[in-house]
Automatic annotation (TrEMBL):
It comes from the Eukaryota. It comes from Lodderomyces beijingensis. It is a multi-pass membrane protein. The lineage of its organism: Eukaryota, Fungi, Dikarya, Ascomycota, Saccharomycotina. This is Urea active transporter. Keywords: Membrane, Transmembrane, Transmembrane helix, Transport. Pfam families: SSF. Residues 538-553 have a biased composition (Acidic residues).
Amino acid sequence: MADTGFVPLPQGAGYAVVLGLGAVFAFGMMLTTYLLKRYNKEIITAEEFATAGRSVKSGLISAAVVSSWTWAATLLTSTTQVYKNGIFGSCSYAFGATVQITLFASLAIKAKERAPSARTYLEIVRARYGTVTHMIYIFWGLATNILVTAMLLTGGSATICDLTGMHPVAACLLVGLSPTVYSVFGGLKATILTDYAHTVIMLIVILIFGFSTWATNHKLGSASVVWDLIKQVGETRPVEGNHNGSYLTFHSRSGGIFFVINIVGNFGTVFLDNGYFNKAFAADPKSAYKGYILGSLAWLPIPAFCSLTMGFAALALEQTEYWPLGRAMTADEVAKGLVLPNASTALLGKGGAVLSLVMIYMAVTSAMSSELIAVSTICTYDIYRTYINPNATGKKLIWISHLSCGAFAYIMAGFAIGLYYANVSMGFLYELMGIIIGGAVLSSAMTILSSKQNWYSATFTPPIATGLAIMSWLVCTKTKFGAITYANLFEDDAMLTGNVVALLFPLITVPLFTFVFKPQNFDWKLLETRITKVSEEEELREAEGAGEDSESPDPEKLEPVKSPISVIASQLVDDAERERYSAEQIQLRKAFKRTVLVCVSLTVALLVVWPMPLYGSKYIFSRHFFIGWVVVFFIWIWYTVFQVGIYPVWEGRKSLAHAMRGIYWDCTGQTWKLRAWQNAHPEEMHAVQSQIRAQLSAPQVVDGQYVHHIDDAISEEKS
């Protein structure tokens, strides 16, 4: 838009969204954190900050998965693919990026079963293979988070600049402010709740675009009209590599190449992104696999339907007087992901520009908050607690988590600014990520799934595969295009070569090293003793005692007393913990078999059964087939609305009712009723098992001595 001087919105609109709307969300999540603490007795300990109490239900998990997986690239790159390659572009993105979330459900179950106390998958790596391997996977894990966050900031800032004229440097610096604030205050729970709110807003915007394009807008208004216009565009501006140059066919050479690149790259960004493991460890055991499978099915229509709607709207309106640029977009503008904001402006004018601005901001900030928690957890538990201060208290770990969030946010802002001045686009980063991180996917998954993989396979596979992938990418670029330049490196064949080598070469090294150097035959029980939770007793005592007027006795002057009754109380809790853990393991093992069957079936359906016949037959969509196709995805997006918008509210209705009741009592001066109700219904309050144990076994002061309150312990144990 800079070439024409046309910007649909004033700069103030950009700052209003980035600062104003961001401040609203930051304040809202800080308020939510306070309300959860007051009415549901949630205390932000180190474990709670990193794992959200390990009790999040499937509805919120699926909403969090959908939000975290809906990046700026999800909306912008998928729309770009439709604009470039036609209808297969929407499915090459949606199908190619859904299977990873679906398959991850199996990994999530095994991680929870075998390492119940873990906060990151890197802790499992260290428990199995030691320091050297741990360091290698820290590098690849952080590289994943850096690439994803860089894509978020470059794509988001380019869109904000395109729509408002706001300087990209300002956008890079300010976009991350809001998610940093609420992530610091509320940890993973705040991130998950914000994910829910952001997803609902994004879905509302997508539905507005959908109704406008396919039903109500006078510029388009029906699938039949869009089909006529897209058919005409294919005749006047045919797509090279598509059957008959049509935009209405799955047979697309460039689309097929992107399909493979998308599959490869996204295995890395799911299986190596600690953000998805954060949510797996946060999930209630019954909810882990359901959340990921249902979340993947709810996520698929977001890129499929949004990109089909906005990509075809762009193609249909680009040569009309409604198009804001007054000319066709350049290749550089397309690579930056500016098809969607231009299409929204052409479709709905300034209102469409505002909607796309809000939608992209929601996508960027929700996914970025997940990345912030992922990185802070790695820095806190895999670096600080492991190598710097193994005896760190929970309060110290929370402080490190806060520091990590802020530091990573603004290091990445600086990195994104550098990418802007280097003119590196979001599309380039998206296709590059598989080359950089794909080599660690198989060995990291086998660390959790297979007891046979040995130290050599886990340690040497990532650097070897990544080195060969980069070499293949460069060699292909040089030999096929004559020179190694930015434009040539971005060519389909070069990117495809590097991505495929990265993902598939470990299929040689992992079994080869395991055979040559003998299987490890790891005992999974060792993970239970090598990965431990943080003691929360001190934090809980401080939180429970906050606001009390009485002065606590000096512990130095008091003699700890453990009566026989206190020993029995501690034993009761230990037994309860063991029974609960054993029951969870049985439950997870049973769920794993069902999950593998469902995941493999869905993967085959999405990668083979659905797209391949359409691709191989070279079928060009007829008018009626195209209308039916649009209707299917329109219905599917309503399932997404139910799964991630309505179901989490229904699932959490009791907690919401508790909070609303407490707010009413506070506002009407009946706070005593709140305290009485909480004392009478302790089982209704949020409690992590480790918190229960800490409260039961924490010594109390009686007559100048520490004793254990066994009455509370026994009554809690009976309940």
